Amino acid sequence: MGEVLDHEPTVVELVGLVRMWRKDETKPVACPSCGAPLEIHDRSARPYREWYALTCGGCGFDRTVSIPLAAAVPGAS
Ligand SMILES: [Zn+2]
Predict the structure, then answer these.
(1) Cα(47) to centroid of ligand 1, in Å?
(2) Which of 32, 41, 66, 75 has the largest CB neighbor count within 10 A?
(3) pTM of the entire structure?
(4) Ligand 1 center to residue 64 CA distance, Å?
């Protein structure tokens, strides 16, 4: 973990960050644009999707990711 991307993170990459965070919520996930610890908030409010807000206090990175619950782990690996 901790690599800084040289492009706007794709949805797949954002989902990867969320999955990394879900594995161990005590471990900070690095912001993809500056490497500072990312703040991730679970905003899931509906039974069909998980919503996560990813924000970084360092660079102002601010994205929202939704993960359909039906899709288990498509293309992970
Ligand atoms: Zn950042």
Answers:
(1) 30
(2) 32
(3) 0.77
(4) 14
